[in-house]
Amino acid sequence: MSDTAVAAPPALGRMAADKARVAAIRDRARRLFEGGATGVQTAAALAEATDELVIDLFRRERADMSERDRDAIGRHAAVIAVGGSGRGELAPFSDADLLFLFRGSARRAFGDCASRAVRAVWDAGVKLGHSIRTPGETVAIARREPQVATALVDARLLCGSSELFAGFRRKFERSVVAGRRSGFIADCLRGRQEERVQFGSTVQQLQPDVKRSLGGLRDLHLIRWLGFARYGTSDLESLRLRGALSKEDARRLSAAHEFLLRIRIDLHFAAGRANDVLSRDEQLRITAQRRISERPGQRPVERFMQEYFRHTTAVSEIAERFSQLHAPRSLTARLKQFVMTHRTDEIFRVSDETIDVVPRHRQTVAASLEGILRLSYAALLNGVRPAPELVEQIRAGSAALPEAPSAEAAQSFLAILGCTGRLGDVLRSLAELGVLERLVPEFAHVRCLLQFNQYHRYTVDEHTLRAVEAAVAFDGDSGPIGVAYGEIRHKEILHLALLLHDLGKGYEEDHSDVGRRIAERTAARLGLPDHQRDALVFLVHKHLKMAHTAFRRDTSDPETLVPFSHEIGSPETLRMLYVLTAADLSAVGPGVWTTWKSELLTDLYDRLMVILSGRRYEYHQEQRLARIREHVQSAIAPPGEHHGAELRTWIDRQLEAFPPHYLGFTSPDQIAADLAAVRQLGPGDVRIEGRCDPEAGTVEYRVLAHGNLSEGCFHKTAGVLTAKRHDILSAQINTTTDGYVVDSFRVIDHDFCGAVPAERLEDVSQAIRRAMTGEGPALPVFQKKIRFSLERSNGSYSELPTRVVVDNHTSDRCTIIDVFAPDRPGLLYTISRAIYELELSVLLAKISTHVDQVVDVFYVTDLENCKIRNGEKLREIKARLEERLDEFLREPV
Q1: For residue 350, what are the β-bridge partners?
Q2: β-strands 698-705, 855-862 pairing
Q3: Which residues are CB-contacts of 44 (< 8 A; sequence separation ≥ 6)?
Q4: Are strands 354-357 and 385-386 parallel, antiparallel or unpaired?
Q5: Burial of 24 (0-12, 13-18, 19+ CB in 10 A)
Q6: Fewer Cβ close by (within 10 Å): the C or N end of the chain?
Q7: In Å, how far are 99, 110, 849 from 134, measured between CA atoms?
Q8: How far apart are CA 671 and CA 662, in angstroms?
Q9: How far apart are CA 30 and CA 21, in angstroms?
Q10: What angle do CA 463, 466, 472 make, to 5 degrees?
Q11: Nearest residue to 539 (alpha-carbon basis) of 580, 570, 506
Q12: Would you state the pLDDT for residue 882?
């Protein structure tokens, strides 16, 4: 050391050395992990090294104390690992859970030593969850707080008095567990249920918490805690040897434990901190790291997540069954069950909560598909679930069930599907028992199958079951969907179609085409008559078409409606397709099914029903137009001019110029108000009206402008709305005979929940007015504002295909442009400006309404209001839009 060097204080030197030691522990664990060690081995190595660190730091602090204090600590205190530390299962940046236990005579000395040791551990870079208590205090708290009690299940002595630890352990087991076993189990179950509510109550969360989400590591811990309470051991293999777990369940739990633990360790190392959330970016990273290959129709990340969900589903199902078998029941509940139990169908015993089979028939019921379905049907009719012990017996023998259902079994399954009530619960039970595959073998393919996009929130099997539950939830609803559901005579066909509608996913071929073949096979398997087979196949094959038509097409156009109605064929099939579409959308994820979508779908349903019920749609429209003409004339005629020929002529000219979608979707009152306003507009005048619809969660902006301001109206308004943090759901672009603009934009304002205040409506209206009159900002600033105004974006995981489809067949009046692209701020502005530069007029736009991906739809004409028929021009439109989209999407968000 040079003469000018200054030695570091001893405390700082020790702290640096401790930090270096912790870094070395994690580096060794990383090398071990990356070298191929299992998750269990890596976690155990981390726990062992952390134990040694804690012991050394504690002993170092104790060494600085007097001999008398050291002696008191040695005889009357102990350092105990609890929770994950006690299990010997630490992730790289997990908290170390410690209990500093002491008897009264060591309170002062041990408290001082423990406090200094805790600071040293924290300073070294290890987070602690710790407490300093006497045995009595610890037991008292454990009786009140389930988290403390469960952490103590895995308590393990690190250093100190073994006699103190042994005594404490006996007292804990006697007073907290054995002495109040039912209370301990109830506390464990209640605590886990609260955690599930917080971290997700479904296994198939697409960005799960590996530790706390349903089916995660915490459910494995729950099984250990309940096993400790009932059998005195928390070891899974010991539970198997004692008959508490089957050999297969123990194997599945062990495999899941290793899989989940390894992922958790990987997440910690990758983040350099505690992180238990398997985000989409992490899913892609781990998939690439594991070199998982793709399969036809299934991306690598989807294969990885399917494996993840298979493990978590197994854990969740086993934990649920284990919990039901060992959940405490009060004396009152047992007496109530005894008193209220009655026989049904001779062999079933039904209580207020469960259904069981009389002993002499139990094996017959549990070992046959017919018996299981009879039991399920009885459970459904009585609103109860099968007894846990009976479920275990069915599960144990499910592998021996016949591959194909008998005619009796098929009829029983159809009878179940024809019910409402708790149909979803029964189907879930059949799926969990492995029975559903005997009836619909293709269901096995979609178990835990992930759709890696930003819209579907559940795996395909979970989405499918939720869709059935969503349909059943319409029963008794007074709205139009509920009324339609109530009128369906063969609900079993609707519910079966929902069960099948997405089973074609995960293949290279379009899932609707695969689904059609699955529906045909299922109909034959279940012995459906021809007319029901045809309805089932249609519903599965065309399950996306009603949403596609409602959200992407002009539903006022007879050329759209009449062919579709002929394809549907009957009011009964239409009712089923209507409810199926609503249920399918409801089950995609939170917020997908909205009042606005319900209104669009219901309007299409009503229009199709007019045709299918025998009334001519064209006549219906003519009658409506006559009523509109009469209403508008009456509403806007000046006093004394009610029957003026000049006014009638003017009104007729304007109405004839408006496209069908304006007349079909705009109320007579609104049409009258629009035309009255148009009559008052002078050159350079713009009138903007914002109207909030809190029930639908949307805002409508109506833009009325003189003809000299009509140029570029659509893309200017779209740009302002996007810059103001709006999602545009649809737009109607209308021009009167005299060139006046009457446009309507239906939007969601992301800055407000519920009603949008008047000052916000005015602010947006003024911004649109400035953009149209040229008073707004220059284009580059305007564009930048759009591009960066919204916080949300798809993120790096979005790989939705970008396509431009030009449809010149659906409409005789317009060319239809469908743009499929990842949703990003400024996308609509980019497309609409490109359409403007192509010298096209937009008559109707339906924006970002989707089932499987984002799609923006534009009905366009040339500047002379004619459909584009020139092949070269159509190719130019497609090429130019693809070029602009590619440029836009390559720019960073």
Answers
A1: 342, 355
A2: unpaired
A3: 88, 89
A4: parallel
A5: exposed
A6: N
A7: 10, 11, 62
A8: 9
A9: 14
A10: 145
A11: 580
A12: 92
**Residue 587 CB contacts under 8 Å (≥ 6 apart), including other chains:** 458, 463, 464, 466, 467, 469, 470
Band of residue 778 on the pLDDT scale cut at 50, 70, 90: very low
Task: Give pLDDT tens digits for 50-93.
Answer: 999 999 999 999 998 999 999 999 999 999 999 999 999 999 99
Q: Which two tokens stand for residue 299?
A: 């991306």
Among 261, 258, 287, 264, which residue's Cα sits nearest to residue 276?
Answer: 264
Q: Which residues contact 622 (CB under 8 A, 6 or more apart)?
A: none
* CA 720/CA 882 separation, integer angstroms: 23
Element containing residue 423 per DSSP (H, E): helix 423-432
């366009």: which residue's tokens?
860
CB 449 within 8 A of CB 505: yes
> For residues 777 and 313, which has the higher predicted lDDT (pLDDT)?
313
Q: How far apart are CA 730 and CA 850, in angstroms?
A: 12
Say what the pLDDT of residue 651 is.
82
Helix (H, G, I), strand (E, B) or coil at 101: strand
End-to-end CA, the chain: 54
The model's pLDDT over 624-655, given as tens digits with 9 standing for 90+, comes to 778 888 888 777 766 555 556 777 788 888 88
Written as six digits, the tokens of 725 are 């943090």
Q: What is the pLDDT of residues 730-767, one digit of tens each?
A: 888 887 767 788 999 988 888 887 789 999 999 999 99
Dist. CA 202–CA 199, nearest whole Å: 9
Give 376's pLDDT tier (boundaries 50, 70, 90).
very high
Q: What is the pTM of this model?
A: 0.80
The distance of Cα 234 from the centroid of its chain, to the nearest Å, equals 33
Separation between Cα atoms, residue 78 and residue 102, nearest integer Å: 6
List, as one string, the DSSP characters of 797-858.
Answer: T--PPPEEEEE-SS-SS-EEEEEE----TTHHHHHHHHHHHTTEEEEEEE-S--SSS-EEEE
The DSSP 8-state label assigned to residue 1 in this structure reads -
DSSP one-letter code for 433? T
pLDDT (tens digit per residue) in 823-874: 777 888 889 899 999 999 888 888 765 544 567 889 999 888 889 999 999 9
Virtual CA dihedral for 614, 576, 486, 608, nearest 10 degrees?
Answer: -30
- Cα–Cα distance, 524 to 16 (Å, whole number): 74
DSSP for 576-634 reads HHHHHHHHHHHTT-TTTS-HHHHHHHHHHHHHHHHHHTT--HHHHHHHHHHHHHHHHHH
Torsion of Cα atoms, 87 then 88 then 93 then 96, to 10°? 70
In which residue are the tokens 């105004």 written?
Answer: 789
59 CB neighbour count, 10 Å cutoff: 15
Pairing of strands 128-133, 156-160: unpaired
User: What is the C-alpha to C-alpha distance for residues 464 and 141, in angstroms, rounded to an integer?
Assistant: 45
By DSSP bridging, strand 698-705 and strand 354-357 are: unpaired
Quick one: which of 733, 813, 842 has its CA closest to 559? 813
Nearby residues of 618 by Cβ (< 8 Å), 6 or more positions away: 558
Give the residue, 665 or 37, on which the prediction is more confident.
37
If DSSP codes are grouped into helix, strand and coil, which group holds residue 98? strand
Token reading at 158: 């690190």
pLDDT on residue 334: 46
Contacts of 145 (CB under 8 A, 6+ apart): none
Are the beta carbons of 627 and 619 closer than 8 angstroms?
no
Complete edge-to-edge strand list for the sheet that includes strand 385-386: 342-344, 348-350, 354-357, 385-386
* Alpha carbons 441 and 437: distance in angstroms, whole number: 4
Q: What does the alpha-carbon distance between residue 167 and residue 305 come to, in Å, rounded to a whole number?
A: 46
Burial class (CB in 10 A: 0-12, 13-18, 19+), 238: middle
